[in-house]
Each structure stands twice: as C-alpha cells, then as structure tokens.
Specification:
One of its GO terms (cellular component) is cytosol. This is HotDog ACOT-type domain-containing protein. Keywords: Hydrolase. GO terms for molecular function: long-chain fatty acyl-CoA hydrolase activity. With 152 residues, the chain is mainly beta. The strands form two sheets. A five-stranded antiparallel sheet has the order 3-5-6-7-4, covered by helices on one side. It has one helix and seven strands, in the order E-E-E-H-E-E-E-E. The protein has a single domain, classed as Thiol Ester Dehydrase, Chain A (Roll), CATH 3.10.129.
C-alpha cells in the first residue's frame, strides 16, 4: 500500500495569498536529498541551516525559469519549521512561483520529508518558506527579468 501525503496550504504573509500545494506526488520536486549524520545536531535532527541552504537553492532554480543570468536572494519573508527532519529522511523541496515583478520573483518553497526508517514511509510537511529572488548584473544591481511570461 502506497501512502500519499495529505494536501496542505501555505499562506505567504508577504504576499497575502493562499497557496494550495497539494500532495508532493502531483509534481516533481526541484531538489531531493537524503539526510546524513554530518548534517545533524546532537539530538539527531538536521540543523535548520542545512534546510535553509536547500530552500535557497530550490528558490534559485525556480527563479531561473524567469531569468537567464544571476539571481540573488533578497528576502526570506517567512520560514516555518513544522516538524524536525531526521537522519535518513528523504527530503523533497517543491517550488511555486507566487509573483513575478519587473526585477524580482516571489517563490513559495514547501519541504516534505519521507521517513525512511518509519514503517509507513509517510510524507510529512516539515518546512514552508517564502523567498524573494532578484535578477542582478555583475555589480549586483537589479536587472529586469529577461524571460517573457506566458499569458494565462
């Protein structure tokens, strides 16, 4: 029997919009990572900074859908650590573009963990974040995004 994660909702305070992300099996994660002991604290849980670094990378990957060139993180408006990530968890990072501006992209990142050593192997939501990325030139000055947006 395959266990599927329940749908969940993220509210990004910076953008005041509700994001329905659905279960992780409905789309592919941007990053998947098997957590290892080197990333854990004395309690056997993964350091929050390790998760933040992967959130930053996942947001950058999503931002590159809107810009060819350099992008930098200018804000993490909200990060919520919901559950601990354990050694051996398979962690998946899902991204959704929330808002596209002239030079910036607001991105929601939803992090799910599959408990590899649990009998059920359930996916659980562990962290949500709202990240703003900005396109920049060589001098780190903002640039207009250079990929045209599809009309919906």
């Amino acid at each position: 029997v395959q266990t599927r994660a329940p749908p969940h909702t993220l509210i990004c305070a910076a953008h005041s919009q509700r994001v329905s992300t659905g279960p992780p099996h409905t789309h592919m994660p941007v990053i998947r990572q098997l957590t290892m002991p080197k990333d854990a604290n004395a309690l056997g849980t993964i350091f929050g900074g390790v998760i933040l670094a992967q959130i930053d990378q996942a947001a950058a990957i999503e931002a590159h859908r809107h810009h060819v060139g350099r992008v930098v993180t200018v804000a993490m408006d909200r990060v919520e650590f919901k559950q601990p990530v354990l050694i051996g968890d398979l962690v998946s990072y899902f991204t959704t573009t929330r808002k596209v501006g002239r030079t910036s992209v607001a991105i929601d990142v939803n992090v799910w963990a599959q408990r590899q050593f649990a009998e059920s192997g359930d996916f659980i939501p562990v962290t949500d974040a709202c990240v703003t990325m900005v396109a920049v030139d060589e001098d780190c000055k903002p640039l207009p995004l250079n990929r045209p947006q599809k009309q919906g």
